[in-house]
């Protein structure tokens, strides 16, 4: 099978779109570049559709690689016939391929292999022919020093027959089908672990069973974690009698002594070979599906977080709050550069609130602060209340900012390189302030797994998780665009076509030669060749540069078309940019070429209308209910302001201003059926919730979304 037909069999896309996208991918084009600047070639595919093509392209390549390895292995056994080779080559999935390879995939010592060495394969063939009633007499002819009596001979023959049954593709597929439709996942507690404190969070699964096909991904992953930690045992169960009967109907064609032997061999094959193998395969498949579902949730959450509302280029005072160790305070300029840092002690045990108020007031005046960012960790509420008591000369907006992952950043090499002379507390406070100014630019410095917006991130396939999250970060960075003159190495490394090494080269060049004045100058960066420039230029922005188009998503390859538009309208470029009345006069059809059509021309016009427009909303001030300080302050029926801080397949968690987040179960998000939680709430959305139930002992809060 060829690549394009393989992709077409898994998608609803047109053949031409797939062919052209595959060609672009083979030319080392990135997903953001293809979706943004090659719309005519792909038929206007978006990033998700191109991502599907990438996924199935990788699957196909892995399948072809496995085929080649299997064909070589069978060839080395001198067992490869033209018919068998054709079967291998025509396989369209790994499961069928591995089933075909199974008879040639002998382990060094199996019961069947031992029986063959003892000369019992002819006896097994006689039994499988099912024509004799004198099977014990026939078995007596196969005795030797290894096979002492007829029972030994028949047992050995049955081992060979068991292996044949196990290797039959039709039988394996029949049992697979039964497992997929009817399998139960069954759990039992490990008695010695029953009272372990860590096991209690899994106590729902101490004695649990349900159809595996209906087990939601989050529950399956919880069960797998409980098993991994040694608290429970997991097994797959189906109706054994029904499964055995189905196999017998396929294999047994007589009613004689041979049939009895085959029936015993079937039972052995089922219990010893088929069921363990296919149960593991089923659990592996269920794990892959659960991983995919969990990673999708994580990816959606991460995207919402990265595209969170930026405050923009403002002078910010950031506070990393604390009690005993004090509150670390930093002052940042519009570019996020650290100008000042110190520690105040407004809370117990020092209780120097008056000194803290004076210090914050003087810093706000001295550094012309426009906004204050407070981390949402320990002592956050108390610090927020303190700051809001201060009478500033000018209006100052106060924001509470998520600290998730800030400690990871502050101890990282990136943070050490940025602030080699400051400790982790200063770095953490700087990160909080920068997150308010631009969440995307700051959060790309942290391993996405550590941001805390998913579930079971340590249990899912780590390679798949990293790949998916990297794709999300890359998509977000390129959809917003990057100011090449202020961007950090981590941010630049996610720009289409750049990567970590070129990002370092860009920053080094910038430090040695000053700010870039034009996109054309980017070509002077060492090792940044024509391909990298093609892939990256449209996503890199030059603020206040020589050419207004350099601060837009118009690709340099389209500058000539804009130049022609400008000439035809008879006005300078500076007067066309942002001038809707002039832009509306442009007839796009007259600018179509062999490679550039209406989709790209519409994008160009949109950019000329609003060049460099940031698609993200602006940051909004939010205040929790000041009377709620801990879980004991909650009671049924309360309406509270909150912020969505995590989304799962079964609901979302909401921060109401205390240590414990409350859960809005999916059933409490709406009066109607909810298929997708993300259709009703988004990460960091400001909501009003109703308290349904408070379990103080288990520290659980049940909420409903208040409309």
- Span of the ends, CA to CA: 53 Å
Helix content: 40-55%
DSSP helix count? Answer: 29
DSSP strand count:
15
Oligomer: single chain
Average of pLDDT: 94
Protein name: Tex family protein
Domain S1 motif: 637-706
InterPro entries: HHH_9, NA-bd_OB-fold, Ribos_protein_bS1-like, RNaseH-like_sf, RuvA_2-like, S1_domain, S1_Tex, Tex-like_central_region
Pfam family, one: Tex_YqgF
Structure, explained:
By secondary structure, the protein is of the alpha/beta class. Helix content is 47%, strand content 12%. It has 29 helices and 15 strands. A hairpin with a 5-residue loop joins strand 5 and strand 6. Helix 2 crosses helix 5, helix 9 crosses helix 15 and helix 12 packs antiparallel against helix 14. The two termini are 53 Å apart. 37% of the residues are buried. The model has no long low-confidence stretch (mean pLDDT 94).
At a glance:
This protein has 707 residues and is of the alpha/beta class.
Which features characterize this protein?
29 helices, 707 residues, five-stranded mixed sheet, alpha/beta, globular
Summarize the topology.
Layout: H1 3-10, H2 15-26, H3 31-37, H4 39-42, H5 47-76, H6 82-90, H7 94-101, H8 111-117, H9 121-129, H10 135-139, H11 150-167, H12 169-182, E1 184-189, E2 207-211, H13 217-228, E3 232-237, H14 240-251, H15 257-306, E4 316-320, E5 327-332, E6 338-344, H16 353-366, E7 371-375, H17 380-388, E8 397-401, H18 406-410, H19 413-418, H20 424-437, H21 439-443, H22 462-480, E9 482-483, H23 489-493, H24 499-513, H25 530-536, E10 540-541, H26 559-569, H27 573-576, H28 580-583, H29 598-609, E11 639-648, E12 651-655, E13 662-665, E14 686-695, E15 700-705
Parallel strand pairs: 4-7, 7-8, 9-10, 13-15
Antiparallel strand pairs: 1-2, 1-3, 4-5, 5-6, 11-12, 11-14, 12-13, 14-15
Helix pairs in contact: 1-2, 1-5, 2-5, 8-11, 9-11, 9-15, 11-15, 12-14, 12-15, 13-15, 14-15, 15-22
Pfam families: HHH_3, HHH_9, S1, Tex_central_region, Tex_N, Tex_YqgF
Protein name: Tex family protein
InterPro entries: HHH_9, NA-bd_OB-fold, Ribos_protein_bS1-like, RNaseH-like_sf, RuvA_2-like, S1_domain, S1_Tex, Tex-like_central_region
